Amino acid sequence: MSTSQAALRPVRANLVLATLFLGTFVLGSAELLVVGVLNLIADDLRVSIPAAGALVTAFALGLAVGGPILTALTIKLDKRIVLLGAITLCILGNLVPVLVADFGVFIAARAFTGAAHGLFIAVAFVVGISVAGPERMGEAISVVFSGFAVSAALGVPLGTLVGQALGWRGSFTALVVFAVVALIATLAVVPSMPGTGGGAGNQARFAFAPRVLAVLALNLLVFASLYAALTYIVPFLESVTGISGALISAFLLAYGVATAVGSFAGGRLADRNAARTLIVATIGAALSLLALYVVGAIAFLVALVLLAWGLFAVGMVPALQYRVVSLAGPGGQLASSLPASAANVGIALGSVAGGLAIGRFTASSAVLTGLIIAVVAIPVAWATSNLRPPVADDATTTEPVAEPA
Question: Where is the chain membrane-spanning (predicted)?
Answer without folding.
Answer: 15-41, 47-70, 82-109, 115-133, 140-166, 172-191, 212-234, 246-266, 278-311, 340-359, 366-384
